[in-house]
Amino acid sequence: MAQPTRTVTFEHDGLTFSVDDIGSLDAPAVVLLHGFPQDASAWDEVLPALHDACLRTLTFDQRGYGPANTPHEVRAYGIQDLAGDVVALLDAAGIEVAHVVGHDWGGAVAWHLAGSCPTRLHSVTVLSTPHPAALFWSFTHSRQALSSYYMAAFQLPRLPERFLSPRLFRVYRTSGLPEHHAVRYAERFADPASLTGPINWYRAAVRHRATTRRSRVPTT
Questions:
Q1: What's the CA gap between 52 and 45, in Å, rounded?
Q2: How many angstroms separate the CA atoms of 188 and 132, rounded?
Q3: CB atoms inside a 10 Å sphere around CB 26
Q4: What are 19's strand-pairing partners?
Q5: 187: Cα separation from own chain's centroid
Q6: What share of the chain is helix, strand, coil (3-state, %, to 5)?
Q7: In the beta sheet, which residues pair with residue 30?
């Protein structure tokens, strides 16, 4: 059965976001946050199952992933700003409380929301992203720092974008992503400039570290 589909446009911090809002307005809402370097289409194969469960879904390209929502300053990509985009979405869509699902960097945003905005969340589900406190602990108690070497490399200006863009297809395939998705994303980020916003998430995380509190809502 076809689900009611709406496009919600909202503004936050002078940036403009476009959201696919699918499902009954009376249904419980689920906001899905994609990872790096992907976009809202990462959830396309998940949405039918959520709609079959009578849930309303909201997906959007996060800050730095679109021409109208990519600020130039690295400091504009702090985790509090990224989480603020989600709260602004809830306000624009008229949603008081929602479930939030995040993958990879979207998971980091979900963790921050779970600690800072519990009154706006029913629950948080995080995929492939430990709580920031656990991640930082692992840097000094495991080989995680070596595995995260790329975060230091990403601090360089321009060079990471130029290096990564032509190699994205291989990166996606090595991670296990199906070929047709790898092709789509490699084309999506074929221009190195399209990666500056996404990589600025890493630059801001290192330069402007923010504290994420313990989750105050049911978390999976």
A1: 12
A2: 29
A3: 8
A4: 8, 60
A5: 19
A6: 50, 20, 35
A7: 57, 99
| Prediction pTM value | 0.96
- For residue 107, count CB atoms less than 10 angstroms from its CB and return exposed for 0-12, middle for 13-18, buried for 19 or more: buried
Alpha carbon 198 to its chain's center? 10
**Measured distance CA(12)–CA(14) in Å, rounded:** 5
Residues 124 and 32 sit within 8 Å (Cβ to Cβ): no
CB 122 within 8 A of CB 98: yes
Alpha helices in 32-167 (DSSP H): 47-52, 79-93, 105-116, 132-141, 144-147, 149-153, 159-164
Single-letter amino acid code for the residue at 106: G
**Pairing outcome for strands 98-103 and 56-60:** unpaired
Phi/psi at 4 (5° precision): -60, 130
Q: Rounded distance, CA 200 to CA 50, Å?
A: 31
Backbone angles phi, psi at 186, to 5 degrees: -60, -40
Q: Determine the Cα–Cα distance for residues 185 and 103; give it in Å rounded to an integer.
A: 16
pLDDT at 171: 95
Q: Which two tokens stand for residue 119?
A: 């009154």
Sole residue written with tokens 């002078």: 14
Whether residue 187 contacts residue 63, with contact meaning beta carbons closer than 8 Å, is answered with: no
Query: Rg for the chain (alpha carbons), in Å?
Result: 17
Residue with tokens 């296990």: 176
Span 34-71, pLDDT tens digits = 999 999 999 999 999 999 999 999 999 999 999 999 99
